[in-house]
Amino acid sequence: MAPPPPLDLWKSLPALALREVARRVRCEVDRTGLHLVCRPWHEVLAPLPGDEPPLPELPLLLRPFDFIGPRFSCLLSGWRRKIHRLRVPDCAKRGRWFGSYEGRWVFLARGQIDGHALVNLRTGDIIALPDEVPTFEGSCAIAMRRATLSSPPGQDGCVGAAIIQCAPLNLDGPSYITFWNIGESALPPLPLAAELGVEDVAYHDGAFHFVTRDGGLLVCRPGVDPDGALQMVCQVLPVPHRRDTYDGSYVLSCPWTQWQTR
Predict the structure, then answer these.
(1) Beta 176-181 vs 159-166: how paired, if at all?
(2) How far apart are the first and last CA of the chain?
(3) Residue 3: beta bridge partners?
(4) What is the pLDDT of residues 3-58, one digit of tens each?
(5) Where does residue 174 rank: exposed (0-12), middle (13-18), buried (19+ CB within 10 A)?
(6) Rounded to whole angstroms, how far apart are CA atoms 52 and 39?
């Protein structure tokens, strides 16, 4: 293999070309690494007014933990060939990860089945999430299995949604769903979710879309009641599509645009 070009040659790379290359790098870790190659690159890559936005970043794949903590791979570089080490808070090294959100936010159960929180891997900020839901008898402890948000946590009106199991916990037990405003208590669990067998959740077009066991969708749109409290308007959408299974996972074959509520 030929040796790499000398560093002086890289330093002389035209600024316009370097900025265009950096804009097209879709791995956040690699994009940051470009700034650290040398001082000239760091100065050239400093943000300027009117810059064309970079291409959207691709998610990092979470790999099995080792004794140091979590490891990540970039989708483009190949998960077997390149591993990224990110500095993460101590709680992220021991907790159970069950979701993520843009901006390096991850959903963690710091006690494996409790201590639910949003943790920012970039800043170390921690936002506590509900560990229980209200019931007719009072309250019930929960374990979150999947979760997502309607918007970034710092934005007004941010709503969280989660697929949960209620105590006593059982791997084969029914799954419910709940919702909450960031910093507030959760709504009572929705029994309909257990009947449908919800498996995953995403936020799209102003609503939470839960994938059900038979491949349909449970669409829940957040709103407020006359008293200003959070409420959800839910609708079941049986979507015709082919369901392919492989190793316990599922592939939804219908175009995403067909899932939109009308």
Answers:
(1) antiparallel
(2) 58
(3) none
(4) 555 555 566 677 888 888 888 887 777 888 888 888 888 888 888 777 777 777 77
(5) middle
(6) 22
